UniProtKB/TrEMBL annotation:
Limits of the AB hydrolase-1 domain: 289-528
Source organism superkingdom: Eukaryota
Entries under Gene3D superfamilies matching the protein: alpha/beta hydrolase
Signal peptide positions on this chain: none
Source organism of this protein record: Anthostomella pinea
Matches recorded under Pfam families: Abhydrolase_1
Descriptive protein name: Uu.00g076290.m01.CDS01
Family under the similarity heading: Belongs to the AB hydrolase superfamily.
Amino acid sequence: MSSPGMLYVTMQPKPGLPIQQFHEWYNNEHGPTRLRLPQIFGNGLRYQATDGKEPSYLAAYDVTSMSHLVTETYTSLRANRSPREAETIGQVEVKRYFWDLVSTYQSPLFIPVEQLTDDEGEGIVFVAVELKPTEADGAEAEIKKWYDEEHAAMLSKVPGWLRTRLFRTSTLESGVPTSIIALHEYAKDNGMGGPEHKACLTPRRDEVFGKYATLASWREYSLFYIFGPAPRDLLNLSQLPSASSTFKAADAKTVTSNTPAPTITSYVTTPDGLSIPYRLEGNPDPKAPTIAFCNSLLTSLHMWDPLVDILKQKRPKYRILRYDTRGRHSVPSPPKPATLDMLADDLSHVLEALRIPKLGILIGVSIGGATTLEFALKYPSKLEKFIACDFNAASSPANTSAWKDRIVVAETPLDDGAPGIKKLAGQTVERWFHPATMQKKQDTVQWMTDMVAGNDVEGFKYSCQALWDYDMKAQLKDCEVPGLLVVGEGDGKGALVKAMDGFRGAVGEEGVNLVVVPEAGHLPMCEEPEGFWNAVDNFL
């Protein structure tokens, strides 16, 4: 294992390349692909020059061990470029540098940039000073000695100084003349150019530059984008021509399009290796409040389609996040039963990957309703409000027995060889939906039946176990997040209305309101989307 270091890439788009195309490709394809390799890359940061010089853009990636950059895991990324990437990068002047870390000096106030929110990180100043050691004996060592004994300590007195790191040309770059690069980070408001900074121009510095080093370059940049492992740049996507905006990755797991509106579908990998698909759309402003949706068991993120259509019309201020609950498509290997705690953690991982520090609103139904309340209890700092629908605050032995029976149905093939989950789908939708829905809305019934039948059987087997044995009643009083409860009038033939009315007063210090949606059962947002909207409109 070699030393840690940095992949340092300067870029200058050629005149014919639209700047939005350059940014959208880099933010939604190139960067996240690398951040999905946390064993190699600790972060990914984009900077724009503020010194009027070219190249105008810099991307810097902290590398855990520089030896990773010669492994197939990394080199295959460049060897297997998408056609879109090959076409775009052909219109960019690119220079890559490999740097080995030599030393680090940092303020007690320093926080790694990737741990900051986008608002906190945006505008951090990044100064890159490249030095060429002279042929004098021990020149490289003298440069480091100057930093160790004087220069770093003097820089630390400059208001706003955060960190200085020294790197040298990596041993991976054989035959390349050695350079030393000093990378300095300062807060947006800083004392660069002030008396403390000018005091760094000491006789010792003059000696170093007179005998041991020559200045090869001095560049100043400003941080403008922090990568996560999940693409999220709706803003640049929204500014691309519709005809040329669609991109589909080779594995089809990531698709970006501005037709008819900016939409990103991709995935987040959880710590236990599960791939969770998500869909991001709505207001493209990265500072827009985000509303997220948490599905019921056996459904996909498309169960929210009717409500999202209304939401886009009525509340265009929201960025909209949907994701498929654990078990929809697969389970981790080895498989393990889901818990509400695990499902809340899944949402937290999705938010972290998308660099969303706090949701404006979370709406969940059924197991998603229970997950929503669990998330509010466990992660109150990540949520402003919640709407939890059609669930109970605790499981029951009878419910557990029913889920076990349903697993048997799903796993038992039908007489005609069809999968058992097809039978379960019919039984489930009939149990879920209000009689009025079953009689008058056959398209809705068929849509939901097909959605349920498309669930992974093993995924259902392990995900439904989150509903077997849970009890949030003792925690309800600790809820700090404002909430609303919603239920379809016919859910459980009215039994769930009574159950939710029974615990709503215990949520938080003052309780929460309960709204009943007429002529709806277990999924009121699917059966009566307008009625559900009316139920939540004022709260939103």
